[in-house]
Amino acid sequence: MSSVAIIRGDELLLFDAGEGTQRAFLRAGIGLNRKTRIFITHLHGDHCIGVLGLLQTMSLASRDKPVDIYGPSGLSGFIRSSQKYLRFGLTFDVRIIEIRPGLVLNCKEYVVRATPARHSVPSFSYCLEEKERPGVFYPAKAKKLRVPEGILWSSLQHGHQVKIGRRIVRPVDVLGSPRRGRKIGISGDTRPSAKLRALFKACDVLIFESTYGDDHRDKAIENLHSTSREAGQLAKQAGAKQLVLTHFSARYADVKPLVKQAREIHDDVIPAEDLMTLQVPYLD
Length: 284
Ligand SMILES: [Zn+2]
Prior knowledge:
Layout: E1 4-8, E2 11-15, H1 21-27, E3 35-39, H2 45-48, H3 50-60, E4 67-71, H4 75-85, E5 94-98, E6 102-106, E7 110-116, E8 124-130, H5 139-144, H6 151-157, E9 162-164, E10 167-169, H7 171-174, E11 183-186, H8 194-199, E12 205-209, H9 217-222, H10 228-238, E13 242-246, H11 256-263, E14 269-271
Parallel strand pairs: 2-3, 3-4, 4-5, 11-12, 12-13, 13-14
Antiparallel strand pairs: 1-2, 6-7, 7-8, 8-11, 9-10
This protein binds zinc ion.
């Protein structure tokens, strides 16, 4: 079932929570009291039912930090009515944010954007994009400008100007050019579209659904899903470095042919599997 956990520093960003997510969560040893935000692509059971079990599991572990949950219109009704009728209280606050397309979240170090997907119910695709980081610090330049080592170096490294007597030393005097952050895209269920190509432009990793292979392209069109080849085409057109295929139809006992079809278009394609982990290094 669909769920992608991005662990970034001390924070967890969870994209979708299909049935049984809490079990995978425990097996993956992610931790139930981490700073957490959950993003739901759409209200189909295989993408959102697991939220309920996950919240309850967190509560059983006496979680105290709030959880923010983002998703399409109807998300609040789904969670609040489940809480009411299933009568489950929680040890922590849940904030539900029904989103609009565009900038969903703007944090100090990253943003999350959403674009409408093309699926049978209101759906979003998401993109996590880190902001630029300050450039590499050159100690020799700092020494030459007679900046004493220690806290002032650290300030400059973090992009703040410092004052030495009457002189101002700016970060640009001692740092290289700003460094690009990482970008990760998550499609949810969707047909390919120009909007998604734009959202996923130059992703380091693009996690894209490939419910079907070439043999069932008609079904992909009919059911508003994608084929692995279409995922490959979109990733290639968007300039995504790596494509991770996911959400394979249960009809495929072996997904190798689907991966092969995508690889005919894009040269870095891997199939997702349960509990798979992936490091996403900085380019530099
Ligand atoms: Zn769906």
